[in-house]
Structure formats: C-alpha cells, structure tokens
Design goal:
Blueprint: E1 3-11, E2 17-24, E3 29-33, H1 40-55, H2 63-72, H3 80-100, H4 105-109, E4 117-125, H5 128-140, E5 145-150, E6 176-178, H6 181-199, E7 204-208, H7 215-224, E8 232-234, H8 244-251, E9 256-258, H9 265-273, E10 279-280, H10 289-302, E11 306-307, H11 317-329, E12 336-337, H12 343-348, E13 354-356, E14 359-361, H13 374-378, E15 389-391, E16 397-398
This protein binds 2-keto-3-deoxygluconate (KDG) and magnesium ion.
Length: 400
C-alpha cells in the first residue's frame, strides 16, 4: 500500500491543533496529531517541509522502518518538535494499518488487557470551597479520580485554575504570571485537608505542581502530604535532571508522576530504572507515537511503573483516541487523563471514544476511531497563542 499524499491541517476549533492526514493508493487514509501547544507552526513546518516530501511513495505498512528513518535519519534526534512530527506520522500509519486489517488499533498491539480505562479530570477552583464544590459535582457524575488545583491566595493567577479546555490565552506574547513558592507550600496542605475532611479517602485525589519546586522543597511537600494519601503528586520538579527525584524519594512515600513534557525514552530511563517515579505520563503525541510510547511502557513495566497518558485539552481528540487504544492494550496501565475538549473541537474531530461514569472507552471501529472533518476545520483558522510564563516578584524567570 503506497502513500500517495500527506497533508498538514492547522486549525483552531477552540484551540490550535496540527493534524497530519496520510492517504494511500488503496483509498485508506489515517490521521495523526502533531500539536505542540504554543509552537504549532514549527511542527507544521517540520512536517510539511521535511517529512511529507520523504513520505510520498513509501509503503504505508512499514511503520517501524518509517519511524526509524525519520528518527535516525534526522541526525539531530529527539526534541519536542521532531518527536511530535514523527508521532503524527506514526499514529496515522497505525490508523491505516488497523483500518486495512479491519480491526480496532488495540488488536494490532496484542489485544485488550482491559475493557475500559480509569480516568481523571480536573477540578479547578478560585477558592478551597469552590474546588471542593467542583470535586463534589464530578463525584456525583461518577468520577473516581480527580486532579485538584485551587487559586493560591496572594498570587494573581494560579496554574490550572483558569478556563479549562479552551484557548485561554490567545495573545501575541506569553502572559507573565507571578510565582511564590512559600505561599504555595503554605496553601496546598490546607486545600488537601479540606478535601479529605469533606470527601474521605476513597476518592482518588491528584495534584500537579507543574515543575515549580526545587528537589528539597518537593521532598518536604511530598512528606507533608503523605497524610492525604494522594493518587500522585505530579511534576514536582523540572526533570531535566532526573537525579533530582532521588531526594524526593528518600523522604517520602507519596506516589510521583511525571513525563508529559518528555519526548523520548532517554528522558525517563534513569527515573524508571532507579524506580524514582510511580507513573510515566508520556503520550503517543509528544513522545514519538505509539511505536515509541510502547517501548517506554515496556521498560517502565519491568520496574512496576504504570502508564498515565497526558490528556490535556491541548492535544487533539486524535491523540486521545490513540492513547485509549494504547491504554486498552498496555499491561501496566495506571490511569488516563481527560480534560474535556471544546465543543468546536469535537465537531471537527468526530470520534468513537467516549466517557461513562469516570471511565473512558476506546470504541471498536477499525483504526483509532477518530476522523477529521476538513470542511469544518476550515471554519477555524489558526490563532497565535502562547502558554503563560512565570516570574518571581523580583523579576526572576521561573519554571511555568
Ligand atoms: O500545554 C501544557 C499543558 O498540556 C499542561 O499544562 C497540562 O500539566 C498539564 C496536565 O497535567 O494536564
Ligand atoms: Mg501536568
């Protein structure tokens, strides 16, 4: 089956998405997501200018060889742009292979290890009470696991608390926000005290630190919140230096998750082999597609580390479809994140996956079960948008 055409579609149905559609001489096509939030056009160009010309004429069934060709053949390996572009090709080719086999994608990976996926969503409140009310509403809807973020009094903007699932910051420059670690560290245990008092311990609670702490601060926090028995504490420290996690581990038994920004197995190899984390958050988008995420998961499985695919709304419904087929198969599955796409995105990307009672279901259609309505996509042209940046009160740049 020959690849006859590949096109890059950039659209903004509520937020920006980059999609690759690969067509074949047998009339079967597949789609993959290449979105890198805040850097969309870089990955669109990487695909359009560099990968698409090399794809035409190749055998669409050679997924592994095409992956290796683009990875090893780039010479400058890895990095978020390269790996997201390779991921889009990879996921589109898995979609094609599964459609050609007339099977849902998870069957090609080895079949289902489970019927449905434990999923968490986000309760974000302006106050502790409001966060609690949102948790109560999700619990009522059947959710079993909820990430909790609350505005930190004294900080004008707090990560995670603004409008979820939308292009919140459509601007020509990143918005600058203020960060203060001591204020946050004093506040977080109060939020968790409130939630455990109100909901008890059966509900899974998660929290995302979003890379703001030093290893020493993170170790102290992880130790202090042991009493709240979190499902996990996420991205406690920026993990360019994987050894940072040794310090946290030495002081606490709070489960740790990270990896949404990782793009290769080498970013997490030490964390996995030293058992410094409990959940690995790499997705079939930013970490090189199903072909590469599968390798990470297999390595993680050897060390009792479970998967937890990143599922923020800044990845298109295609990535959610691919992740759910991967989750359906992966033996060491932990949990899946889901942050609700805007309605416009659901119309542009019709999909078979669905949510029920706090669990996601992959669906059984051949392929990954997600399509793109190109006519609908045309109605939503790209809009320049950035993620925030953070500074301390003296102006020092901080991790966002
Ligand atoms: O683009 C950045 C988001 O994907 C990220 O802020 C979301 O941390 C996130 C999460 O855990 O979903
Ligand atoms: Mg996160």
């Amino acid at each position: 089956m020959k690849i006859t055409n590949a096109k890059v579609i950039v659209c903004s149905p509520g937020r920006n998405f980059v999609t690759l559609k690969i067509e074949t001489d047998e009339g079967i096509y597949g789609i993959g997501d290449a979105t890198v939030n805040g850097r969309e056009l870089a990955v669109a160009s990487y695909l359009q200018d560099h990968l698409v010309p090399c794809l035409i004429g190749r055998d669409a069934s050679q997924i592994e060889d095409i992956w290796q060709y683009f990875y090893k053949g780039a010479y400058w390996r890895r990095g978020p742009i390269t790996m997201a572009a390779i991921a889009a090709v990879d996921v589109a080719l898995w979609d094609i292979k599964a459609k050609a086999a007339n099977m849902p994608l998870y069957q090609l990976l080895g079949g289902a290890s489970r019927t449905h996926m434990l999923t968490y969503t986000h309760a974000n409140g302006e106050t502790i009470e409001e966060t609690g009310d949102k948790v109560a509403a999700f619990k009522e809807q059947g959710w079993k696991a909820i990430r909790v973020q609350s505005a930190v009094p004294g900080l004008p903007v707090t990560y995670g608390v603004e409008k979820v699932g939308s292009l919140a910051q459509a601007e020509d420059k990143p918005r600058e926000t203020l960060w203060d670690t001591p204020t946050y560290l004093r506040f977080l245990p109060k939020l968790l005290d409130h939630l455990r008092d109100r909901f008890g311990y059966e509900l899974h609670l998660l929290h995302d630190v979003h890379h703001r702490l030093t290893p020493q601060e993170a170790a102290g926090l992880a130790k202090e919140v042991e009493r709240h028995r979190l499902f996990w504490l996420e991205d406690a420290v920026p993990a360019e230096n994987q050894e940072s996690f040794r310090l946290i581990r030495q002081h606490s038994t709070t489960p740790l998750a990270l990896g949404e920004v990782f793009n290769s197995i080498h970013d997490c190899r030490q964390l996995i082999q030293e058992q410094l984390i409990d959940y690995i958050r790499t997705t079939p988008l930013h970490a090189g597609g199903i072909t590469h995420v599968r390798r990470i998961a297999d390595l993680a499985g050897l060390y009792h580390i479970r998967t937890a695919c990143h599922g923020a709304a800044d990845m298109s419904p295609i990535t959610m479809g691919a992740a759910l087929h991967f989750d359906r198969w992966v033996p060491n599955f932990g949990i899946q994140e889901y942050a609700f796409h805007p309605d416009e995105a659901k119309n542009v990307f019709p999909h078979e996956w669905h949510l029920r009672d706090g669990y996601l279901y992959s669906g059984e259609k051949p392929g990954h079960g997600v399509d793109i309505d190109e006519k609908a996509a045309e109605k939503y042209p790209y809009r320049q948008a950035y993620l925030d940046v953070a500074r301390l009160s003296d102006g020092t740049m901080w991790s966002w």
